[in-house]
Write a structure and sequence with these properties.
Blueprint: E1 2-4, H1 23-30, E2 34-38, E3 41-44, H2 46-65, E4 69-70, E5 76-78, H3 79-85, H4 87-91, E6 96-99, E7 105-108, H5 113-123, E8 132-141, E9 156-166, H6 169-189, E10 195-198, E11 209-215, E12 221-226, E13 232-234, E14 257-260, H7 267-273, E15 282-288, E16 294-300, H8 307-313, E17 318-319, H9 322-328, E18 353-357, E19 366-369, E20 375-380, E21 389-393, E22 410-425, E23 435-437, E24 443-445, E25 447-454, H10 455-466, E26 483-487, H11 493-503, H12 506-510, E27 515-518, H13 524-534, E28 538-542, H14 544-547, E29 551-556, E30 562-566, H15 570-579
Parallel strand pairs: 1-27, 4-8, 16-18, 18-21, 26-27, 26-28
Antiparallel strand pairs: 2-3, 5-7, 6-7, 8-9, 9-25, 10-11, 11-22, 12-13, 12-22, 14-20, 15-16, 15-17, 19-20, 22-25, 23-24, 28-29, 29-30
Helix pairs in contact: 1-10, 2-6, 2-10
């Protein structure tokens, strides 16, 4: 596609928007790629949509090349499917759901495992129909508590999700490896430097799981590298060296003084209100088992629970919802490490099993929730922790200062998750009864895999990785246009003819080179600044000084390299420069 800037819509901004905290968000707004509608939702303007379509095309071509079949699933889901799989409560408040006019509960799809499994349990009946892989590129919805970082973490986003169906683990392994290699091709074509790391399946379930990540200060995922090795994994999965402490028998109790903390429930807020450090607080996290029973996990206030480690001792557990916590007798945001409404603070309650992270055993005179709204307890000691059973171990994410079990230092890096692949196994086929007949006629559950890519994130990640202080530097295959022709004097007859020759070039059309011509009647300085900002890989400058000698200037956006070429050699020179670009 060829386009003239005067007929296009690229509303660039000179100043950095106050709302944008990271580079990709700032530049996507300044370069006229996106505009904000509301928290976590964005318009894609024409230039941004062209880049998004380029990312989609790469994904679609590689998925088609891997033999996957494209379909399109509904974004609106009946909630009973999510309840049938058991994930309705697991995703909890991250899920957007509502009742329609008929009183039926619906979900705006955050992902589509349940939906594809429901479709396939009605369509796949025999082993002869497998293996098969389906994929879609579809809008997803998640009720993020704090949408931020532009399109990296939004409430509405575009995702490619694929699902494979198999008769056995061997077949799943083959497709899983095929998807792993396909993802590598996708991200390489997108011009990204990425890593493949072992990851936690999380709420998706299943066994094997790997993430494709790009290291960036703007990333919200934290990865850890083990010493000088090439081993990289998520902070959820990394183990740490323990002191092998045990919960002390007859541990002293504190006074447990009640303190009103109205409106303060987060660790940071409570610590500030009580003039304490987050390290002085013990977080009590209540989890629910698939059978409906509950247990607690205690970690120091500045630490986070590792659900990956937790699920090793409590398979299938998930964080209890606000309603479940309050029905249990506690208060959401104010839970404490003892039976709700018991131990002298009020009457009643039943002790829960408690998993205590080892660091808590070294704490004294700490603060906890009181199991009552707007109330905490200060002056707490280990003897105040009371449970049905207390187990000590490694139940948190690793943090700065930790070492690996072998004593290696842990190096932390922020990362953007680009894609995630999972071996779902029977996680959805069993509860949803997706069965097939094997060669003997016996009914067996289908074995499944799942493979996701955040298409929006490809754009943001490319900008984070390649942009400079002047603006975006697009990789060739993602760029909305490959060539920008900057016409210094739009009334110059020779410039007009050269533009027409470029736009009508059969060679450029055969190579599917997209050209944008800056034909605006503005100063050359504005044109050059905007050219740097929107980041088209190759710039052709038609200026009066060079044109006097029948020359044009070619400039690579990435390196700033400039070459002057005769006008009659311009088209071959454009192709030559594009061939060397990634």
């Amino acid at each position: 596609m060829n386009m003239r800037w005067s007929c296009f819509f690229i509303p660039t901004l000179k100043e950095n928007p106050a709302e944008a905290e990271i580079k990709s968000h700032r530049l996507m707004l300044r370069a006229g790629l996106i505009r904000k509608l509301a928290s976590g939702t964005y318009h894609y303007l024409p230039l941004g949509l062209r880049a998004l379509h380029k990312a989609e095309a790469i994904v679609r071509e590689e998925m088609d090349g891997a033999g996957a079949l494209e379909l399109l699933l509904p974004a609106l889901h009946p909630a009973e499917l999510w309840k049938e799989s058991g994930r309705f409560d697991i995703l909890g408040e991250d899920m957007l759901h509502f009742e329609d006019r008929h009183g039926r509960e619906n979900v705006l799809g955050p992902t589509h495992e349940e939906i594809i499994t429901d479709l396939m349990r009605r369509e796949i009946h025999s082993y002869r129909q497998m293996p098969v892989t389906f994929y879609q590129i579809q809008t997803k919805f998640r009720d993020e508590m704090r949408p931020r970082s532009g399109v990296i973490r939004s409430r509405e986003f575009l995702m490619k999700d694929a699902y494979s169906f198999h008769t056995d683990d061997k077949s799943l392994d083959a497709t899983y490896q095929l998807m792993r290699e396909t993802y590598k091709k996708i991200f390489k074509r997108a011009g990204l430097d990425f890593f493949v790391v072992q990851a936690d399946p999380g709420a998706m379930g299943g066994s094997g799981s790997q993430e494709f990540v790009l290291f960036s200060d703007a990333g919200e995922d934290r990865m850890v590298q083990l010493g000088a090795t090439d081993v990289v994994m998520s902070v959820e999965m990394a183990a740490r060296k323990l002191k092998n402490l045990s919960f002390p028998k007859g541990a002293p109790s504190g006074k447990g003084t009640q303190v009103l903390t109205p409106g303060h429930s987060s660790v940071e807020s409570v610590a500030q209100f009580l003039k304490k450090s987050p390290k002085d607080l013990v977080k009590t996290m209540i989890y629910q088992r698939p059978d409906g029973t509950f247990f607690e996990v205690l970690v120091r206030g500045d630490h986070e629970v590792s659900e990956y480690k937790l699920k090793k001792v409590e398979p299938g557990a998930f964080m209890a919802s606000r309603a479940a916590i309050e029905k249990l007798g506690s208060a959401f945001g104010f839970s404490g490490p003892f039976p709700p409404k018991q131990d002298g603070y009020s009457a009643g309650g039943h002790p829960l099993k408690i998993y205590v992270d080892e660091d808590v055993l070294e704490m004294k005179n700490f603060v906890t929730g009181a199991n009552e709204r707007d109330t905490h307890l200060t002056g707490m000691e280990l003897g105040d922790i009371k449970g049905e059973e207390i187990l000590v171990g490694d139940f948190r994410q690793v943090a700065e200062g930790d070492k690996s079990p072998e004593g290696q230092p842990l190096y932390f890096r922020a990362a953007i998750e680009l894609g995630h692949i999972f071996k779902l196994n029977l996680r959805y086929s069993e509860p949803l009864k997706a069965l097939y007949s094997d060669e003997s006629g016996a009914q067996k559950p289908v074995v499944m895999g799942c493979y996701g890519i955040g298409v929006n994130r490809i754009l943001a990640a490319a900008i984070e990785q390649h942009a400079d202080d002047k603006g975006i530097v697009w990789p060739k295959n993602l760029s909305p246009f490959q060539v920008l022709v900057t016409v210094v004097d739009v009334n110059d007859a020779q410039s007009k003819q050269i533009v027409e020759d470029i736009l009508s070039s059969k060679l450029l059309k055969e190579k599917k080179i997209d050209v944008l011509v800056d034909d605006r009647e503005v100063t050359a300085g504005i044109k050059f600044n905007d050219a740097d900002l929107i980041g088209i890989p190759l710039r052709v400058v038609l200026g009066p000084k060079n044109l006097k000698n029948n020359n044009a200037e070619l400039k690579l956006r990435k390196t700033g390299q400039i070459e002057t070429v005769p006008v009659n050699e311009l088209i071959p020179a454009i192709l030559r420069h594009l061939d060397i670009l990634a």
